[in-house]
Amino acid sequence: KESAATIVEMLKDVTSYEGEDAVFECRLSRETSQDAQWFLGDVPLQSNEMNEIKVQGTRHTLILRKVTLEDCGPISFKVGQHTSAA
């Protein structure tokens, strides 16, 4: 059984203007097959035309495309028992 990955680089707060993209990044202690999930408030985010979710090795990236005022709120990233928020 693999040991749980931990978050070694936490999310940073991002300020964007309406119509811009907002980019959030987290880095884990190691690559993991564990489910990692992004949230806006309490809503789980999926990769679609508005949100791009990328994983490159230990780096997990969320790009919110052309943000609007409705996108304002806390972003969080969860993996296992670990959470980071911005």
UniProtKB/TrEMBL annotation:
<dbReference type="Pfam" id="PF07679">
    <property type="entry name" value="I-set"/>
</dbReference>
<dbReference type="InterPro" id="IPR013098">
    <property type="entry name" value="Ig_I-set"/>
</dbReference>
<keyword id="KW-0597">Phosphoprotein</keyword>
<dbReference type="GO" id="GO:0005737">
    <property type="term" value="C:cytoplasm"/>
</dbReference>
<feature type="domain" description="Immunoglobulin I-set">
    <location>
        <begin position="7"/>
        <end position="79"/>
    </location>
</feature>
<keyword id="KW-0963">Cytoplasm</keyword>
<protein>
    <submittedName>
        <fullName>OBSCN protein</fullName>
    </submittedName>
</protein>
<dbReference type="InterPro" id="IPR036179">
    <property type="entry name" value="Ig-like_dom_sf"/>
</dbReference>
<dbReference type="InterPro" id="IPR052385">
    <property type="entry name" value="Obscurin/Obscurin-like_Reg"/>
</dbReference>
<keyword id="KW-1015">Disulfide bond</keyword>
<dbReference type="InterPro" id="IPR013783">
    <property type="entry name" value="Ig-like_fold"/>
</dbReference>
